[in-house]
């Protein structure tokens, strides 16, 4: 790009007239481009920092979500074993607790609370039950625990049974 | 910042002389700043893309490394159960296989090969054994499997017993 010739055409040839106004316009123009490039650079750096933070969290969530079926199946195996007094089952409960503690340390605490009010952000309703002993709209049973907290740090809501609302 | 006055001092007052050389110098100067800002912006974007890719991988590795003790303890529980024909043990082997397949799908294949030559990048020597039946410097037993591949995608080397080198 050359600036010397810009706007040169059609200008009256007046060699004794200072050309400052034309040059000042060019200077202002290129200075404006420079300032915009600096602003772009500043914005790019800020966006970069945000994206890095966001991406690490997204990757952590993605990987932990992939591990949940392993934890679920370990829990199913423990449940199938029932209450038998077997060192193997005790050992497996310890492994399950280790996995749950790990998920918590990575930002995704386990949620399997019963007796709490139904919350559409935290609970997927797998069924409705009649239970006159509890307040309507209460979580009665947790079929599958949830992990993490809505809206941004949730791996999944808990799958629950809820007491029927009064008509 | 103003450019109009830069270099203006000490300049002979010659109103009839065109001021083009001075203005051209200013234009070249600010144009140079603009070009450098554009180059910085370009470099920042390239570095950003590299950092994002690197960071996602680092986070994936960090999280998977944190899961390895869970997999190790599950395996220890299965080993302690021995060869008993118990549906629980069969179920646990399936969970273990699921975890190993997950690690592989995330970029960290399991390594527990025996009969292969010792490789300092892939093996931590936990002990040396005399075994005239195999080539010296061969992996005889894997005490703890390794995951991933050196140099960049390794979670950990395998802990192994190696046959003694011939003196």
Automatic annotation (TrEMBL), chains A, B:
A Pfam family reported for this protein in Swiss-Prot or TrEMBL: GrpE
Keyword terms, alphabetized: Chaperone, Cytoplasm, Stress response
Annotated segments matching region Disordered: 1-22
GO aspect biological process, one term: protein folding
Cellular compartments annotated: Cytoplasm
One Gene Ontology term, aspect cellular component: cytoplasm
Biased segments, Basic and acidic residues type: 11-22
GO MF entries: adenyl-nucleotide exchange factor activity; protein homodimerization activity; protein-folding chaperone binding; unfolded protein binding
Subunit relationships: Homodimer.
Similarity comment: Belongs to the GrpE family.
Function: Participates actively in the response to hyperosmotic and heat shock by preventing the aggregation of stress-denatured proteins, in association with DnaK and GrpE. It is the nucleotide exchange factor for DnaK and may function as a thermosensor. Unfolded proteins bind initially to DnaJ; upon interaction with the DnaJ-bound protein, DnaK hydrolyzes its bound ATP, resulting in the formation of a stable complex. GrpE releases ADP from DnaK; ATP binding to DnaK triggers the release of the substrate protein, thus completing the reaction cycle.
Protein name per the record: Protein GrpE
